[in-house]
Write a structure and sequence with these properties.
This protein is α+β, with helices and mostly antiparallel strands. 49% of the residues lie in helices and 24% in strands. The chain folds into two domains: 163 residues, Beta-Lactamase (2-Layer Sandwich); 147 residues, Alpha-Beta Plaits, CATH 3.30.70. Strand 7 and strand 8 form a beta hairpin.
Length: 323
């Protein structure tokens, strides 16, 4: 523990499951509390939602493959629950005889101060070579490259986050992006705000694949994605929910507003053709005024899915609003 406290930067040690084993005094000065209070707690408690998602979807998978990650940009929550921008390295090592992860953070509030701290950390890290030899190697490479790569790393992290929220076929947002968008909206609205979700299902899509092939089916989905995006408001979000199903998230849209968007969708979908014939879609609409409910997304999906089923059972090519 004394070796960790010698470093002029925040350091965290966790086990392979993300449970906190040790934290040095610089880290505790940011997040508050004592080392004993944090011990065996999940490291997720140190991060805001977006950074926790990034850790789960990218950082941990990379650690399992490579045993280290370098030059990542994220945020820590300080003792006042304010977000502190950080650069982070992580390296597998030994702590009390067991495989553990060493997380080294650098506060990025001021670039010049940040670089000076990293240069100082290089010299101090050399004195920890016996217990952190592999970590020292990674830090030394980081120090020599940081001035040229800091901007590149930030850009790469943004692109990586976008990829994790993007459907590869259509370029639309995906389910993860939908959940993040709704959670963000809920954090900003008051009770009673309306919101709607449209679930859009392509009619007879299996017949398109069977008759014209999956390549043509992919072309139909890509063209439909463009038309859905053309039919929504700037504040809305269109996502590919799965297969031939798409979802439109409409914040602050009541029953009437959702119906208007659904009609625009039908109008735009006529532009998508297969062998000269327009495709059609069945739309299920769900509207809620329970804006702060933790089950909002699940309720909207469940209700709009039931409405889609009714639309298809009623002859397809129509909109049904869940009542």
């Amino acid at each position: 523990m004394d070796q960790l406290n010698q470093l002029p930067c925040p350091v965290l040690v966790t086990d392979r499951m993300g449970k906190i084993l040790a934290a040095n005094i610089d880290l505790l000065a940011i997040v508050g509390g004592s080392a004993e209070q944090w011990q065996q707690k999940s490291m997720d408690k140190l991060f805001p939602l977006a950074s926790r998602i990034f850790l789960q979807t990218h950082v941990w998978p990379m650690l399992l493959r490579q045993e280290s990650v370098r030059e990542l940009y994220l945020h820590l929550n300080d003792s006042n629950n304010q977000r502190i921008p950080m650069m982070m390295n992580c390296q597998m090592g030994q702590f009390e005889g067991a495989d553990s992860y060493y997380w080294v953070f650098f506060v990025a509030l001021q670039r010049s101060l940040f670089e000076a701290e990293l240069l100082q950390a290089r010299g101090d890290a050399q004195r920890m070579a016996a217990s952190l030899a592999q970590s020292h190697k990674e830090l030394k490479e980081l120090h020599s490259q940081l001035s040229q790569r800091t901007h590149m790393v930030e850009t790469a992290n943004i692109e990586l986050t976008e990829l994790s929220q993007t459907d590869p076929l259509t370029g639309m947002a995906n389910r993860r992006a939908l959940a993040i968008a709704i959670t963000h909206w809920q954090s900003q609205v008051t009770d009673g705000a309306h919101a709607s979700l449209l679930l859009v299902d392509v009619d007879h899509f299996k017949a398109v694949n069977d008759q014209y092939g999956h390549d043509e089916g992919d072309c139909v989905l890509t063209a439909l994605a463009r038309q859905l995006q053309a039919s929504m408001r700037v504040s809305d979000l269109a996502v590919r929910y799965g297969g031939e199903e798409f979802a439109l998230w409409l914040p602050f849209a009541d029953h009437t507003g959702a119906e208007c968007t659904a009609q625009r969708v039908h109008d735009h979908v006529r532009e998508v053709k297969v062998a000269g014939n327009s495709i059609t879609v069945s739309i299920g609409v769900a509207t809620s005024s329970d804006a702060r409910s933790p089950e909002l997304l699940q309720q909207l999906i469940k209700h709009s899915d039931e409405a889609v089923y009714q639309a298809k059972a009623s002859g397809r090519n129509r909109t049904v609003h869940f009542e």
